[in-house]
Amino acid sequence: MTAWLHDLRYSLTVIRKRPMYALVTVLVFAIAIGANTTVFGVFNGFFLRPMPYPDGDRLVMVYDSYPRIGLENAGTAIPDYLERREQAPSLEELAIVRTESKTLGDGEPQRVLVAYASASLFEVLQTEPALGRRFTEAEADPGNGRLVVLSHRLWRDRFGAQPDVIGGQIRMDGETLEVIGVMPEGFAFPSGGVDAWLPFVISPEQRADSARGTQFSISVGRLRPGATLDALNAELAAIVRRNVEEGRIGADLIEVAGFTGRARTLRESRVGDLEQVLLVMQAIVLAVLLIACANVANLQLARVAGRRRELAVRTALGASTARLVRLVVTESILLALIGAALGLILAGGGTALVRELGLEREGFTAAVDWRVLVFTFGAALVAGVVSSLPPLFALIKQESMQTLRDAGRHGGGGRRAQAVRNGLVVAQLSLSVALLVGAGLLTKSFYGLQAAGTGFDTSNVWTARLALPEAQAKYAEPDAWARFYEQALDALRALPGVQAAGFTSVLPFSGMNNLGSLRIENRVLPPGAANPHAQHRSIDADYLPALGIRVSAGRNFAATETEPVVIIDENLAAKYWPEGGAIGQRIRRVGVGDDRWYTIVGVVPAVKETSLADMPVKETVYWHYQQRPASAGAFVVRTMLPPTQLTNAAVAAIASLDPELALYDVATMETRVRRSLGPQRTPMVLTGLFAATAFVLAVIGVYGVLNWAVTQRTGDIGVRVALGAQSHDVVRMVLGNGLRLIAAGLVLGLVGAAGIGRILGSQIRDVSLTDPVVFTTAALALTGAALFASWLPARRASRISPMVALRAE
Questions:
Q1: What CA–CA distance (Å, rounded) separates 5 from 36?
Q2: What number of CA atoms fall less than 13 Å from residue 651's CA on the CB side?
Q3: What is the average pLDDT across 232-245?
Q4: Which pTM value belongs to this model?
Q5: What CA–CA distance (Å, rounded) separates 486 from 509?
Q6: Helices H, strands E: what count in the chain?
């Protein structure tokens, strides 16, 4: 221990004498370790830290699943929830939840998100209110349920965090509710936007078998101690089989759609899709750390070469090889630990960038805890040791007297050390070019998605959502919904600058959707085939013009339609009427209590509505909003003015119709589309940043090796000049060395780039993984920068004269 302390003090003394060397080494370590800490901090927050609920790893999401039609994680029908709660032994408890937007009255109208939840939700999540109490099972019986538990955020922001709110009354959508509790700060289920929880009241009709397939809710459960996910999934499948045997579920639902129950852990349900992205990012930053280690190793090779005379003298005086190794390793680890401390600071900025890019999930966030600290300083220790290995090998392989002869006056370290330095530079170049190719593929894919577009015109389009309170008598009937939206559209169209204003039940790029099956008149399905399946939208006549969607066949809706009519997109038309002739055909939707046949009067191009990465685009059916009314929907307004200027006027227009209503989720369509690219933007930006870091470090490595070689060969170059060598000969010699390193690095890097492309394949759309433009661009960029880095020491070498060489000697 005393020997290590002595080595530590000696290393500090040596570092103080070489501040520039120490500064460069610390910065290189800090950048690389900071990048690793950033990515590991996100991975830790998502997959390693405990869930924000007690025994959170026992929490599971339970779904109705239709794998044969691509709906593996559908919602939960109430009869299925009730059966699973009673008949699945692996479940300790199960809860059902659905969310809905409501308008909070008693003052300025405020749109809030509420969760209708069974009383068992609080037992499943093992969380009790911070104030008051939660509702009971009995209070969720029909005729009860006029109770509410507030979120901590709503209690603080709307009610001033006053304790006397408990027992008081508030109004939501015109209903009077009694406040019985306030949840703890930070509690958020099923999403962070939930402002209140109300009892989930289940009517006798909702319990009946006829309600199966109505899946507007989700269910979350807690496994019993010792129970497994596989056992639960087997029990869920067994429940379905029993229901088929008893005639409660039709066998065709199993044959056609593969209906079953499915459970996933809550963690996997929330963040499972990010695991591969984060693992790829972690591999990339580890490559950056390796490049940094190679850079530091080259610095240390030069450093050891400069100290070779000192080390040889120590050996002659009796110092063992282990003693010399400790001196080198201690100095390297010390600098790496200092770099790790600085890297933690840089990681704070990296974490902020990750949040800005949207790489977070509800209840899961990047944070520094003991795991991150252990990882950071563990990475520093490993990096310190790894970066010291090449100089140690070069040191140990030579005897002390041979070292002095090889080193000469300046201690160049001999040919072996130079070969090691060259090998490290080749490794840096190969890793950096592979990362540049990966970043290029992601970037080309990202901008390709943007260029492909949505299929409609997103410019100068303002959007907002609105929901009518069905509990109020004036909005209790579907006809009233259509009348109100007609009045609202008239008010919006009268605003200055508005060119068109339309209504839709499902706003594109809002995260919402409505899917369901269809029947086509006179079309007999083959045995085992499923009914046609599509997205469904209720729209008015101005919706398509507001988004610039043309009618490719037939006609648009009229303002009022007297006969049942429908518009379909080209995908649905091509799938079932490939030779044309969709116009005049009749379809109807399955399972909505409407047996009318609707005549197809128009066909429009297929458009993307959930993500620009959607391929293929799901078939879509558009219904006239008066014939298929919706109580909740959205306005789409095309304006000649900047869309953001429309908000205040639109809010006032809606308030003039009903002051208790509030617009919410207000955004331009361009903003919505931009948000949808988050899953593609995040890896693109991060990979680009890490590739740029690797690029800079590799170029610095080229410069450092060649510059050191010129320093060590000053005498040799002076002799060449004395014998008649010209400046261009010296430049060619140095550049030749650089070109050999660059060529070797490019060959290895381009081979490795093919592997990088395959690893990133899940994030790359519509771009070849061996795209020649990307590969060529990356190779040219690195070659150009590396040649410039080679030219600087070559120019320096060209200025060496015999007299300069003599003075150097």
A1: 29
A2: 13
A3: 90
A4: 0.76
A5: 23
A6: 25, 21
